[in-house]
Amino acid sequence: MKQSSDRAATMPRRLDALIIGAGFGGMYALHRARGMGLDAHAIETGDDVGGTWYWNRYPGARCDVMSIDYSYSFSDEIQQEWTWSEQFAAQPEILAYARFVADKLDLRRDISFGTRATAVEYDEDAALWRITTDDGTTFEASYCLMATGPLSVPKQVDIPGADRFGGELYLSGKWPHHPVDFAGKRVAVIGTGSSGIQIVPVVAEQAAQLYVYQRTPSFTLPMRNRELTPDFIAHIKTYYSDLRASARHSLTGGVRPITYRPLFSVSPAERDELMEGAWQYGGLAFLGLFSDILTNREANEVVAEFVRGKIAEVVEDPDTARRLTPRGYPIFARRPCLDTGYYEAFNRDNVTLMDCLEHPIVEITEKGIRTDQGEVEVDIIIAAIGYDALTGAMLSIDVKGKDGRSLKDKWAEGGRSHLGLMIEGFPNLFVIAGPNGPSALANFILLNEQNVDWVCDCIAHLRANGFRSIEPRLEAEEDWMTKVRELGSRSLYPTANTWYTGANVPGKPRTFPVYIGGLGRYREICSEAAAGGYRDFKLL
Ligand code: NAP
Fold first, then answer.
1. Rounded distance from Cα 423 to ligand 1 centre (Å)
2. pTM here?
3. For residue 294, what is the DSSP state?
4. Which atom of ligand 1 is nearest to the CA of 158?
5. Where, by residue number, does the polypeptide cross the bilayer (predicted)?
6. Rounded-to-integer distance, Cα 457 and Cα 143, Å
């Protein structure tokens, strides 16, 4: 009896579709796959749905895409039932939303939580994927959907001595589930990207002392978050379907003004007026001002200089203001940050800026952080040092395609794929919101929906026409990669050291695996690829 139950435990579970990840991409994939009658199951490392919003529960965590945009559009029922409280939602509200959707769609019954995929291997003869997990469960699935997320592998603290620190050390991207008490504590924040910039003002109000270790200063704009009024909500809900339809075909997947006006077509006085208006309005209003901010270096510099001037206006100490002022890379070529009181925090007596460009961190000690200026003793270190983005999550799994070829080898020079959706040599492996699609430049939830819809339509096509497998032709993949590279090289994005380019991870190949043609155009290209009978793909 015991023997047979052991055997049952090690027998692979046979599925039509296995989905890796239960963030917003994986949740929708599971819903769609089930809806088309597939035997589908998802595995998720966390203990609940939500993906990045399950892990990123650091103080001040908030989305920089407007809540009315950063939510599912596929179900009007969900849109009508859920009500956002703020223009930019905080992490607890976004996680509550993910849970609401999981309950509503009864998703959890088909998700194994606390389960990480360790290896994913293709059996060409059987045309199926074998998935091994860290809890010993194995699956066999005709289709494997990688909904592993673009920002789900936090960088580990690689500063010497990190393991001997005697206080509390937290990663922003793997924040503990217990409350962290900063009252009366000396706290260090390392990193001033979107995460660090959100953490600083909140912790500054609670801690006795806060030391902000900044290497590259970021450009950050005031978020000017607001509560959403009942009238506004009622209005949005009346027109939600239309708003969503236009967002799907927009550049970024959100309701945001766009412009065809180059910066130098406007007089200096009018420019200043427009920029002042955008600064006062808050959010990403700047991106709707001029058409060439990310293609014309001189135009970019005008906007950058305006924002630099604002830093000098807000920060009282001129030396701190100077150190906080970003130089040497174009504004918006790194992901723009939105803050609430970030620069103002440096006017507090208990906040000190530590300039790591001038005085790099030498080591973490038992008691704190040492630079060449000496040791600063702290009780808590928060490392907000970013992610092995875009490719990191898929490469953390041992993925082997046809002939045992490993994804690590295929992606040795950077993530390659066709349309960001499929990889030559890896049939029936689908990537959701992966590298080489619009990725970081689009609203991830609408991108997830589009990717999942494309994948599910593709699977329906295979099944309706008796095909066992699909993979992109090598030439098609190369053409797409050339297109992504050429478009990217016409912009200023590749010129900055960012997670977009892999420059933030030592040893990572430097590429710019983001399609910058916009979500709307990307949708058309993907639809054309399907409508043309998947001519760019090998169907067997
Ligand atoms: P990030 O933008 O990559 O920033 C990491 C920061 O850590 C940088 O300032 C970096 O400096 C610094 N750093 C890394 N290693 C360091 C070291 N050894 N010593 C000193 N400093 C070090 O990461 P993030 O802030 O987590 O944001 C990543 C992305 O997540 C964002 O761009 C955004 O897309 C997303 N996100 C969004 C929100 C939101 O919606 N509001 C919030 C958080 C994150 P260098 O630049 O010099 O390397």
1. 28
2. 0.96
3. T
4. 18
5. none
6. 13
- Specify the residue with its C-alpha closest to ligand 1, atom 34: 335
Best residue for ligand 1 mutational test, from 65, 156, 194 (most atoms within 8 Å of Cβ):
194
**3-state secondary structure (DSSP) of residue 141:** strand
d(CA 461, ligand 1 centre) in Å:
41
Tell me the domains of the chain and their CATH numbers: 2-153+389-539 (3.50.50.60), 257-331 (no CATH)
Residue nearest atom 6 of ligand 1, based on CA coordinates:
191
Q: Is the pLDDT of residue 8 over 50?
A: no
Each residue of 312-337: pLDDT tens digit? Answer: 999 999 999 999 999 999 999 999 89
pLDDT digits (tens, 9 = 90+) for 486-527: 999 999 999 999 999 999 999 999 999 999 999 999 999 999
DSSP bridge partners of 374: 371
Q: For 211-225, what is the mean pLDDT?
A: 97
Give the 3-state secondary structure of residue 78. helix
Report residue 71 CA to chain centroid gap. Answer: 14
Residue 15 β-bridge partners: 141
Read off the amino acid at residue 103.
Answer: D
Kindly give the distance from the C-alpha atom of residue 202 to the centroid of ligand 1, in angstroms, as a whole number.
Answer: 17
Partners of residue 369 on adjacent β-strands: 364, 376
pLDDT value, residue 9: 56
Residue 367 has pLDDT above 60, yes or no: yes
Token pair in block for residue 423: 């990889």
Q: Ligand 1: residues whose CB is within 6 Å?
A: 62-64, 151, 159, 172, 190-196, 198, 213, 215-216, 335, 356, 361, 384-387, 440, 499, 504
Cα–chain center distance at 294: 20
Calculate how far, in angstroms, residue 195's C-alpha sits from the geometric centre of ligand 1. Answer: 6
Contact 401, 510 (CB under 8 A): no
- Give the angle 530-76-91 at the CA atoms, nearest 5°: 95
Whether the CA torsion 30, 32, 35, 40 is positive or negative: it is negative
Q: Give the pairing of strands 470-472 and 537-539.
A: antiparallel
Torsion of CA 447, 448, 450, 451, to 10 degrees: 110
Cβ contact 354:376 at 8 Å: yes
Measured in angstroms, how far is the CA atom of residue 332 from the centroid of ligand 1? 14
443 touches 244 (CB < 8 A): no
Contact (Cβ atoms closer than 8 angstroms) between residue 22 and residue 107: yes
* Cα 9 to ligand 1 centre (Å): 42
| CA 343/CA 314 separation, integer angstroms | 6
Task: Give me the pLDDT at residue 10, please.
Answer: 73
